[in-house]
Write a structure and sequence with these properties.
Layout (H helix, E strand, L loop, with lengths): L11 H34 L23 H16 L6 H11 L5 H17 L2 E13 L2 E12 L2 E16 L10 E10 L2
Antiparallel strand pairs: 1-2, 2-3, 3-4
Helix pairs in contact: 3-4
């Protein structure tokens, strides 16, 4: 701004504000950049958490050959539920799931037994229901204590406490069987 007298002198206060503004902004930007850089360095140097997924579809494993107890329990429980929860109309679907869960070395005998059971169930109008009570795991052997109800022509024919002993083995994970396990053998015992 100019003087009233027309001498052309510049107001000193206005000039100082204009000079300080860029310096203050540069200082604030430099300070923010330094804080963000320190935060980024702290995050980058922090130890990363490891997430272990038992059904991960990778060839590498954290502990080669080790099968987590929870994975074995879940797989065996699903197997037992598909094996002994059926009606004549749902048996074919159950057997398709079971075939994907059976280990390759047990395939021939298991397929033959499943086919015989299918014929008996369809001809006799047999249904089955299993209710798991307790599951224990010892290595790759899983024991499922359950109540099994057998129905013939929609009438309860038999109810019994049953113990399923399912032996598993590791195998490559696949799309239909992401657990990376297969059933080698099963044993069914009735009674307490």
């Amino acid at each position: 701004s100019f003087d009233e007298g027309g001498g052309g002198s510049v107001d000193m206060r206005c000039g100082t504000d204009r000079l300080l503004r860029p310096a203050v902004m540069a200082g604030v930007l430099l300070a923010a950049n330094a804080v963000l850089s320190l935060g980024l360095a702290a995050v980058a140097l922090r130890p990363r958490s490891v997430v272990v997924l038992p059904s991960a579809k990778s060839e590498a494993s954290l502990l080669p050959g080790a099968v987590p107890e929870e994975t074995a329990r879940e797989f065996a429980l699903r197997y037992v539920l598909h094996f002994d929860n059926f009606t004549p109309s749902t048996l074919e679907g159950c057997q398709q799931v079971l075939r994907r869960m059976i280990a390759a070395r047990s395939w021939a005998g298991a397929t033959e037994a499943l086919e015989k059971r299918r014929k008996v169930a369809v001809e006799g109008r047999m249904s089955s229901q299993v209710i798991p009570l307790e599951t224990t795991v010892k290595g790759l052997t899983v024991t499922v204590e359950a109540v099994r109800r057998t129905f013939i022509s929609d009438r309860l024919s038999r109810e019994a406490k049953v113990r399923y002993v399912v032996t598993l083995e590791p195998q490559p994970s696949t799309e239909p069987n992401p657990f990376g396990l297969g059933v080698v053998s099963q044993e069914i015992r009735e009674g307490p």
